[in-house]
Amino acid sequence: MPRTTADAEHNGFKKIGGCDTTAHWRGQRYIKNDDYAVVLLYDIHGFIAGIQTTVPKDQGRNYPKPPIEPPFVSDGNRWVISAYFVDPSTICTKGRTVQEFNAEGTGTNLYIQNSTSPEHSVLIPHKEADIRGTKWVEGNCFLTMGKHYWYNLKADMSCDTVFPVFLLYNHGELTAFGWALITNLTSTRYEHPTPSSFGLHNSVHHSYSTTNISATAQLQLHPPYRGETDIWICLPKIFFIKIFMKTVPTCLNTAGVLSTMHIYLTGNYALDTC
User: Fold this and answer.
1) What are phi and psi of 118, to 5 degrees?
2) Is the Cβ–Cβ distance between 50 and 265 less than 8 Å?
3) What is the pLDDT of residue 61?
4) CA angle 168, 173, 175 (to 5 degrees)
5) N or C: which end of the chain has fewer CB within 10 A?
6) Per residue in 196-221, pLDDT tens?
7) What Cα–Cα distance (Å) separates residue 211 from each residue in 12, 74, 161, 190, 238?
8) Which of 46-60, 100-114, 152-166, 216-230 has the least mean pLDDT?
9) 268 Cβ partners below 8 Å, 6+ apart?
């Protein structure tokens, strides 16, 4: 994935919005092929600053529900959720200099926006030890992904309240995160796990279609996150789909087709062994 607006435009991305400090997100927004599954965010100087995914308001399942609005915020005929790789308060004000960008790479931290104010986005701990004791619930280790963490997960919860972001840690370090959406979105950027992927078993089975798996399995953002690693958006192969959760909401049995996306902060996700 392109790290600058110049590279984005050269690679066929188009600008859909500028840096607006009155918007419910921060950054210049770019998409490719009119696919809003991945919206890249750049600062006022054109350096990569974050990423979004969106859900059409007419997608038929009335998702998201009010309990998760935010982190979803309204964007015309879509709902949008945002993550940032730098402090959101700097993106549309001072941005980064060339020297800072060269020294820091794609970003310095991971921030998840959980309100209509980007400046109040939640800073995610780099260390797994610092996530313990919070509302993030430990999930299972999954080779090529890492150890999953899900926010405030409970067996008897409503799927209307499932937080649409998960975290992944490997060897005690934050290495990835992703979107988990309780709706069926058609972009090839998403994967579609079945209920059994989360540790549930019932008679409902949603098969995978090759049309739902991107022919390009890895979409990479250069250069390294925190100056050392790369950011990947990856659609794992079907045979990697196993069990992600220890505490499994039973509502997933009847939730239908889900849509997920993994965003890696490492140079080689095959080395993510938890």
Assistant:
1) -60, -30
2) no
3) 85
4) 45
5) C
6) 556 554 322 222 222 222 222 233 33
7) 22, 29, 29, 11, 13
8) 216-230
9) none
